[in-house]
Specification:
Length: 296
């Protein structure tokens, strides 16, 4: 039974993070880029399940820039869903955050992606704005929603993890999560932290040098990675919708089957092609699986 759904509600973002899929796409194919927002009415008809964990998390965009975010959350809460949202948190005022906080409850989490201290996190989160992030954090502390701090390790911030964790406590965060990045192309990348050089698991470097690997698909283990893109298409996870992989995949070739405007979630998951995909995954080993879910 499906446990969760990952929604990319918009591909809009105010940041220009240098290893982000959005930044890389725009740099490589500037004329092909268009801003997209999830069709809320189509999603409401498609989403025929209750009690799921919904991840509002962007491969290309930041959910707080989705113009219908509050309406979406009201709908999801009416379906008794819990919400986990990842955001950098820049460029909204306290009134906006208060309205958001009033829609959420203790089952929900907002994870702020802040990779460093106020004075250096924009080394990666280019265009991030600490003053508006801090305003949002202070506004949300008046509501029962849980606050988490996501801290990706880079060369410029590996020395200040303890300081950032203390700051997170001072600001009222319940969680502080340090995570590795899988977005480095080569060992000489200046952003690689010293502890990651020569031992970067689940990364572009490993994938480029050894694609013939066994996989351990997270989608089958957790059953909560099912992904809907901002333009309204289903794939098994966000990596399978990433532009390097998507346009070579069966989900692109059969995109009409996976268009949320033409089906419902329960029908799509019981579709013969979908069932066969998951049944044969360890044998077919698509590229996005060897990249994101290598065994070991």
């Amino acid at each position: 039974m499906i446990k969760g759904l990952h929604l990319e509600v918009t591909n809009k973002c105010t940041l220009k993070c240098p290893r982000c899929s959005r930044t890389e796409f725009i740099e490589q194919f500037p004329k092909a880029w268009t801003n997209k927002d999830l069709d809320l009415e189509a999603f409401k008809k498609f989403f025929d399940m209750d009690n799921l964990t919904i991840s509002l998390n962007g491969t290309y965009g930041d959910p707080i820039y989705y113009p219908k975010l509050f309406d979406l959350i009201k709908f999801l809460k009416s379906k008794n869903c819990s919400i986990w949202m990842s955001t950098n948190g820049s460029y909204h005022n306290q009134d906006w955050w208060r309205e958001l906080g009033g829609l959420l409850d203790s089952k929900d989490t907002i994870s702020f992606a802040i990779d460093g201290l106020p004075e250096n996190f924009t080394t990666y989160r280019v265009n991030g704005d600490w003053s508006s992030i801090e305003a949002g954090i202070h506004a949300l502390r008046s509501y029962p929603v849980k606050l988490a701090w996501q801290y990706i390790l880079f060369s410029y911030n590996e020395h200040c993890v303890d300081q950032a964790e203390q700051l997170s406590r001072d600001l009222g965060f319940e969680e502080f999560n340090v995570i590795p990045s899988s977005r480095f192309d080569h060992e000489q990348d200046p952003l690689i932290p010293s502890q990651g050089r020569g031992n970067i698991s689940n990364s572009k470097i490993v994938w480029k040098t050894n694609k013939d690997v066994e996989i351990e698909p997270k989608c089958k283990k957790t059953n909560n990675d099912h992904y809907i893109s901002a333009d309204g298409y289903y794939t098994p996870c966000c990596w399978s919708s990433e532009h390097r992989f998507f346009y070579k995949s069966e989900f692109w070739k059969n995109k009409d089957i996976y268009d949320i405007k033409k089906t419902t979630l329960s029908k799509l998951l019981s579709n013969e092609k979908t069932v066969n995909f998951y049944s044969n995954l360890e044998t077919t080993k698509p590229e996005y699986c060897t990249f994101s879910c290598p065994k070991g």
